[in-house]
């Protein structure tokens, strides 16, 4: 009798999280967490309701990919002495960041979309742009879009708080915090949101965006009490960031979704449901537990990310199947997919002709008219087929060899990344309320 009880208890634990063993093998400086859903579960068909609250996102190029997960992991691994993602920052031409327009207390403004951080900020008019040494340089060097012309709609926080955040390759943004209304998707207004109007930045901009919209969790917000030059952990205070506030104000169901378009470097972001995009195969959907990847062990405390992560069943490629389990971060700001080295190598060999590793780029290259293998990622038993056309970047040509970059790169010790090359093949639902990541296939034919 007792055995039965113990046995079923054990089963329950395993059933509750089937991949606990995978998550224990985290590389140095990485921690995985499995968040708990806060909302009663709903059937997928109910969840897959089309949302009327959606907005376009568009790709912007800049001189850095500092905010791509690959670059952030690279900088982090170098600091903690890991071996994954070395030198990926040198492939800086290959990150696409997505921008979207919001209305900030009545003023339209373009913000970068970031699912890895939580603070929302805009650059204020008289900001000080500084170089890596903190020395003032002309504002134009920071390359922001138009600065936000006004002050906080509801005044500053009391007592005064400031934001201090350090991004991937050392970019720093700081400024006072206060409260303003932010309108998304044309008419969805989050009232009295705590935001920052940055007045001091070390930033590599794109001349388009004027700030950033962070869609991660409250636990990694970066607000501090006290003067702006002080940000020790003791003075840090957590606050309710954009998406959390939107849900608590009843403006959105606790999920958002992103569809990245093919070819056009644009897409759609929907709040509370899925966007009305063409070509969804609603028969082919998958739901998996959401895992959160946290970066830890960093000397600077004010440098935190948490990434939406999944553990797929495995990969099918070239009539082979690989079912080893690894965590993969889902990131629209990273162009390529980063896989375990042995698997990246095997898939690249399956191109005809085989792709070769070029050190200068830390990526694989093959003939620009090569035939790619048939590759699919299997998630919760469902197959998500990569469009062969997405597996070779015909505009990323190495001038020395005339070869083109492939979409499958090596991710060292991980965690691995599903970038745009994957996201173009599926609508991705960040179902925060049920702690699930959901995918709906977008076949290319
Ligand atoms: C990283 O870049 C440095 C400097 O360019 C080089 O010496 C080093 O070998 C590179 N590391 C790897 C793993 O490529
Ligand atoms: C901002 O700069 C303008 C001109 O450079 C100046 O007139 C104004 O007083 C400044 N405002 C603040 C708040 O510093
Ligand atoms: C930024 O704002 C804070 C708080 O209002 C102020 O203490 C600081 O001097 C300002 N810094 C710059 C560079 O304007
Ligand atoms: C405003 O919201 C309603 C319902 O939430 C939606 O049907 C409508 O399309 C939205 N209008 C715009 C311009 O976004
Ligand atoms: C932004 O504009 C400045 C000035 O026109 C230019 O020098 C810089 O190259 C531009 N940066 C980007 C990323 O487009
Ligand atoms: C994408 O671009 C390729 C080559 O530039 C073209 O052949 C293909 O038709 C385009 N696909 C779509 C859906 O526009």
TrEMBL record:
Signal peptide: 1-16
Active site per UniProt: 114, 331
UniProt entry keywords in alphabetical sequence: Signal
Keyword check for Signal: yes
Domain Peptidase A1: 98-440
A single cellular component GO annotation: fungal-type vacuole
SUPFAM superfamilies, alphabetized: Acid proteases (SSF50630)
Name of the protein: Aspartic-type endopeptidase
């Amino acid at each position: 009798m007792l055995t039965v009880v113990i046995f079923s208890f054990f089963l329950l634990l395993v059933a509750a999280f089937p991949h606990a063993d995978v998550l224990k093998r985290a590389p140095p400086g990485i921690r995985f967490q499995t968040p708990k859903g806060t909302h009663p579960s709903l059937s997928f068909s109910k969840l897959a309701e089309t949302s009327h609250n959606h907005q376009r996102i568009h790709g912007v190029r800049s001189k850095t990919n500092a905010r791509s997960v690959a670059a952030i992991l690279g900088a982090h691994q170098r600091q903690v002495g890991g071996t994954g993602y070395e030198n990926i920052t040198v492939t800086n031409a290959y990150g696409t960041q997505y921008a979207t327009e919001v209305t900030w207390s009545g003023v339209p403004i373009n913000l970068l979309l970031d699912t890895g951080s939580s603070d929302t900020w805009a650059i204020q008019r008289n900001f000080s742009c500084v170089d890596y040494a903190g020395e003032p340089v002309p504002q134009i060097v920071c390359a922001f879009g138009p600065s936000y012309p006004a002050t906080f709609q509801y005044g500053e926080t009391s007592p005064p708080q400031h934001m201090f955040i350090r991004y991937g390759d050392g970019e720093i943004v700081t400024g006072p915090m206060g409260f303003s209304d932010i309108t998304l998707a044309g008419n969805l207004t989050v009232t009295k949101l705590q935001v920052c109007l940055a007045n001091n930045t070390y930033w590599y901009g794109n001349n388009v965006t004027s700030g950033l919209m962070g869609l991660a969790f409250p636990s990694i917000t970066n607000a501090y009490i006290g003067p702006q030059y002080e940000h020790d952990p003791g003075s840090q205070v957590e606050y309710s960031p954009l998406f959390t506030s939107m849900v608590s104000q009843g403006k959105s169901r606790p999920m958002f979704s992103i569809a990245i378009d093919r070819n056009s470097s644009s897409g759609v972001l929907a709040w509370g449901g899925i966007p009305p995009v063409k070509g969804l195969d609603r028969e082919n959907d998958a739901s998996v537990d959401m895992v959160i990847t946290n970066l830890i062990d960093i000397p600077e405390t004010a440098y935190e990310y948490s990434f939406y992560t999944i553990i797929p069943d495995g990969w099918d490629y070239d009539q082979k199947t690989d079912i080893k389990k690894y965590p993969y971060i889902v990131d629209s700001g990273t162009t390529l997919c980063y896989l375990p080295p042995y698997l990246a190598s095997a898939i690249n060999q399956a191109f005809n002709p085989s792709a070769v590793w070029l050190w200068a780029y830390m990526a694989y290259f093959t003939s620009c008219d090569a035939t790619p293998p048939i590759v699919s990622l299997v998630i919760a038993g469902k197959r998500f087929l990569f469009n062969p056309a997405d597996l070779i970047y015909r505009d990323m040509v190495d001038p020395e060899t005339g070869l083109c970059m492939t979409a499958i790169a090596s991710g060292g010790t991980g965690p691995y990344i599903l970038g745009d090359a994957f996201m173009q093949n599926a609508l991705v639902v960040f179902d925060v309320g049920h702690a699930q990541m959901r995918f709906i296939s977008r076949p290319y034919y």
